[in-house]
Amino acid sequence: MAEYQFLRRKIIPDKLISYGFTESNGLLEYKTPIAENQFELKLVVLNENTINTKVTDLSSNDEFILHLVPDATGSFIGGIKAEYERILQSIQDRCTEADVFKSRQANELIQYVRNTYTDELEYLWQKFPDNAVWRRKDNQKWYAAVLTVSRRKLGLDSDEVVEIIDLRADKEEIPDIVDNIRFFPGWHMNKKSWYTIILDDSVSTNEIIGRLNTSYNLAK
Questions:
Q1: Is residue 8's pLDDT more than 90?
Q2: 189 near 154, Cβ under 8 Å?
Q3: How far does Cα 44 stand from its chain's mean position?
Q4: Rounded distance, CA 197 to CA 185, Å?
Q5: How many Cα neighbours within 13 Å face the side chain of 197?
Q6: Model pTM score
Q7: Could you tell me how far CA 64 lies from the centroid of its own chain?
């Protein structure tokens, strides 16, 4: 068997069950015929982002691995590889969710926005997979961004990478908000109307939620 990891994604067990996975010996597994029923693909969930995959030749009951060999060529192997990748992509699309931000505060805010505005973080930049935004449904304007950055880039004396949130504020209020201790100039944003908070409990989650609601309204 070979391990396959969903990078920056988290498997949702309930969605796996809806997809067709069943429980066996305490593990969730899924079997499906491929290559015109000549082979079988078996998937077994190992943890929240990793599964084991096994392709079996049904005529001999031997494991088939050529679809995993980069240099293996040929239309038959290519067809199995394409089906294998299509099924894994389908599971990723239907049974996983983004799992980039690890701090408690980031996850509290993600859940708050999901419950309050029914918005999900959007990962817009392929080159920057650890950065995402929330935007309003009615006008597509951003009202917050959650990013990863080193403290040094915020003007602090540390290379520690932290998670931050960028929020909107009225331009006349920005000079009074930014103190470079708890609130920083908007990272990668227009510093005249955005400011940054590090998600390290230097500002309480309840206060950030209030400021996030203000930012949402300002984006109207």
A1: no
A2: no
A3: 21
A4: 9
A5: 26
A6: 0.76
A7: 31
Encoded tokens for 145: 């961004």
Contact 173, 215 (CB under 8 A): no
Tell me the per-residue pLDDT of 152-210, one tens digit each, with 9 for 90 and over.
999 999 999 999 999 999 999 999 999 999 999 999 999 999 999 999 999 999 999 99
Contacts of 196 (CB under 8 A, 6+ apart): 154, 164, 165, 166, 167, 183, 184, 185, 186, 187, 189
Asked whether the CA dihedral 108, 112, 114, 117 is positive or negative, the reply is negative
**CA–CA gap between residue 114 and residue 150 (Å, rounded):** 27
Q: How far apart are CA 7 and CA 187, in angstroms?
A: 25
Distance CA 14, CA 212 (A): 30
Q: Say how far apart CA 64 and CA 70 lie, in whole Å.
A: 14
In sign, the C-alpha dihedral spanning 175, 176, 180, 183 is negative
